[in-house]
Structures are given as structure tokens and as C-alpha cells.
């Protein structure tokens, strides 16, 4: 592990940590940091109408991305968009019903896959790239800008089922029944997600995160095939065009052995840890190999008070001296009090 100050100085501390350094203070951002817990987000959301218009209107996407930076001064901004923009830009019909989550027309066989586009619709994703460029231009230099995409496995679970499901049974089932179709769907997502991330880097993203929110339902062999291998191919394709591209993987629910294998196979710069991770064992296995990001339970943040303080202190102690990026173990929930977010940031920053 490199010492603070031996190089990387002048870079945003978020990027120092991703380069394996231990910055002079711990960088902090939150998954879903722009969202319904903020009144200023709800106001823009109301103006935009539906959620997808918010994602595709650069004025709105720029504004809601910057809101949590203005309010809290996080060390990283994350592009406001959604992982389901990729299937949408491949031609899948997609809607977000209020309070119900996403609904897609399911893609369950080779003929339905063949009806989709080979490449992402520029009419959609160019608007995302425009938002990235404008966000980068407006952000303070010390704030890193993160782009993102969903991992192929997680995106495929929504495409096959047409909605979120508790255990991703539709995608798991089709991967057994029709592995050739499922592999072709994953291939399409690997290629288009890599292009999507390359476009975000070219527009000004400093690093990207690959969200594999449903990695935890896969057995070890399926985890290699549907989580590790597609992420490995995306990382390689992105770095072939953006040398040194900084990439974080968040395989939610992965075991420590799965996580270790993923870091080894993909060469990602950082891993996101959910709240169930055994921090000391993870640090022992992976500290010095990549940055460790996470893993405060979002429910501790809702609870606040001593429970929150204790959870933060334990986390900071376990990762003291490691290349650590403070974050939650999953997205912030809409009912979270803003005062608790302020309390968390102050405690992490030691003020
Ligand atoms: C699985 C997944 C999705 N989207 C995402 C994931 C992976 C991370 C995770 O597991 O949470 C990722 C995502 N979604 C959103 C972002 C924006 C950036 C950020 O602040 O982190 C990011 C990075 C905005 C959003 N994406 C969504 C909202 C809420 C939409 C609203 O304003 O009504 C936001 C702010 C909608 C969404 N989008 C998705 C679902 C299941 C839902 C409905 C559930 C919900 O409402 O929280 C798919």
C-alpha cells in the first residue's frame, strides 16, 4: 500500500483512493445520493413529469446530479441516470410506474433479442453524454465525476422478467433452459455497456461504477460466468480505448471468495461492499489490491443517533489506513432524514 503523499497529489481524493493511495482524508459519496429523500429532487422530478424524461433531459439531469454536491459537498458526484437506459436505448420499451418500479416488455428468447438494436440509439445516449460533459464543466475540480452502468447480469434480470423480482428466478431459469440465448443477451449487454462507458469517459467522467445489484443470487459457477466474465470483458474493452480507465465493481451480495476472484480476474480499481461484508476479512484478502468502498447499512442511516455513530466508528476503524471510500452498502432510502446524512458526513470528516 502506498503512503499518503507519495504521488497522486492534486488529484481528487476519490481518485487517489482508486489509485491505491491513502488520501489525507477519507473520500465520501452515497449510492443514490440524488433522489427522493431530497426535497429539491422531488421538485425537479415533478417538473420533469416521468422519470425517464428526467434522465434524458440534460438540464434536469445536470441539476439533480449537482444537488447533493451543493448541499453536502460529497467528494464524488454520480451521473443521474438509470441502469435501464441501456435496454431502453436497445429498443426495449420501458416505463416507470409511480411506486411500482420499472416495467419492460420481456426479452426471453433469441427472436425477441434479434428484434432489438445491435447498438445503442444515439438519440437517447447522446443526451446522457451531453449531461456528463455539462456536469463535469460545473463541478468543482476536487469533486470526481462518476459515470455508471448496470452489469450485464443485473440488467438481464430486468430484461428477462420485465420487472424487478425477489430472487431473479426468470433470468436464472432461462439461463438453464436456453443458455445460448442467455449468453447472446449477455454478449449484447457486454458490448453495448462497454461503448456506453467509453462514451461517458470521453464526455468527462473520471471513473465509473458497474452495478451488479443481483450478483448475490448466483451460485459460484454462475457467478463466474454471468458476473465475473462479463465485467472482465467490459473492463478490457473500456481500457482498450480509455487507457487506465478507473472502474469500480459493486457485485452486491457476492461472497468474499467471489469478490476476491472478481478483483483478480477483472483488474477493477475498487469494489463496493454491501453491509453484510466482513470488513476485516475483506481487507485482509483485498487491501492493497484495490480500493474498498462501502459499507454502512442504509438502515443505520435511517436510525441515526448513537446507532449511526457506532456503525460509522466501527467502519472507519476497520478500514483505517486502507484505500477506503466511505459509502453505504446500498442506495439511500427515500425516508432517510437529511439531518442524519449531515451527521454522517461530519463524523466521517472528523469535525
Ligand atoms: C437495480 C437498479 C436500478 N437503477 C439502478 C440500479 C442499481 C443500483 C441498485 O441496486 O439500487 C442504479 C441507479 N438508479 C438511479 C441512479 C442515479 C445515480 C445515484 O444517485 O446513485 C443509479 C446509479 C436513479 C434512480 N432510479 C430510480 C429512481 C427513483 C425514481 C423516482 O424518482 O421515482 C432513482 C432516483 C428508479 C429505479 N431504477 C431501478 C429500480 C428498481 C427503480 C425503482 C425503485 C426505486 O424507485 O428506487 C433500477
From TrEMBL:
Catalytic activity: uroporphyrinogen III + 4 H(+) = coproporphyrinogen III + 4 CO2
Enzyme kind, highest EC tier: lyase
Span of domain Uroporphyrinogen decarboxylase (URO-D): 27-36, 146-162
GO biological process, any: protoporphyrinogen IX biosynthetic process from glutamate
Binding annotation for substrate: 32-36, 82, 158, 213, 330
Top-rank taxon, per record: Bacteria
Entry annotated with the keyword Cytoplasm: yes
Family: Belongs to the uroporphyrinogen decarboxylase family.
Subunit (UniProt): Homodimer.
Protein name: Uroporphyrinogen decarboxylase
Organism: Starkeya nomas
